[in-house]
Design goal:
Blueprint (H helix, E strand, L loop, with lengths): L3 H4 E3 L5 E3 L10 H13 L3 H13 L13 H19 L8 H12 L5 H11 L16
Antiparallel strand pairs: 1-2
Length: 141
C-alpha cells in the first residue's frame, strides 16, 4: 500500500513537502479521502468516524458516500502490484532484490482492499452501526 506517512515530510518552516511525484496532481477530494480512510483506518469504525469528523471539522470538502470514491485507491494498488511484480521478475535499481518487490506486493495482498472492507469504511462513514462483531464481513443496521 502507498505509505502516505513517508510521502509527505515536514519542512523547516513548518510546511509540508510531497516527495512522491507519481501520486501527485489534482484529484477528486472524495477519492483522496477514500485513500486516507483505507490507509489510516481500515476496518476500525471508530477510527474511520474520528478521522472523517476531524477532516470535516477542519473544513475538508470531501464526502465518501459511494463505492466509486475508492476507484483511485483500487487503481493505485493495482499499479503498485503490477510494478512490484514486474520488478520481482526483473530486479532493477528501484528494486534490486526480489525481497524488495515481495515486500511491496505483500503490503497489498496481506491487507487487501476487498469489497467487504470498503463496505465497512462506507458503513462507518455513514454512521451505520454493526450488528455483528466481525469487521471483515460486517452487517449493518
Amino acid at each position: 500500500m502507498v505509505d502516505f506517512g513517508t510521502l509527505v515530510l515536514p519542512t523547516a518552516d513548518g510546511g509540508v513537502c510531497v516527495i512522491d511525484w507519481e501520486d501527485s496532481g489534482p484529484a477528486d477530494p472524495s477519492q483522496e479521502l477514500g485513500c486516507v480512510l483505507f490507509e489510516f483506518a481500515r476496518a476500525d469504525p471508530g477510527r474511520i468516524r474520528a478521522l472523517t469528523g476531524a477532516y470535516r471539522q477542519a473544513g475538508g470538502p470531501a464526502i465518501v458516500n459511494r463505492r466509486g470514491h475508492f476507484s483511485m485507491l483500487i487503481a493505485q494498488l493495482g499499479h503498485i502490484t503490477e510494478i512490484a511484480a514486474t520488478d520481482w521478475l526483473t530486479p532493477n535499481p528501484r528494486s534490486p532484490e526480489r525481497a524488495d518487490s515481495a515486500a511491496w506486493i505483500g503490503e497489498v495482498l496481506n491487507e487487501p482492499h476487498t469489497r467487504e472492507l470498503l463496505e465497512t469504511i462506507l458503513g462507518a462513514v455513514q454512521g451505520r452501526r454493526f450488528v455483528t462483531e466481525d469487521p471483515i464481513l460486517p452487517t449493518y443496521f
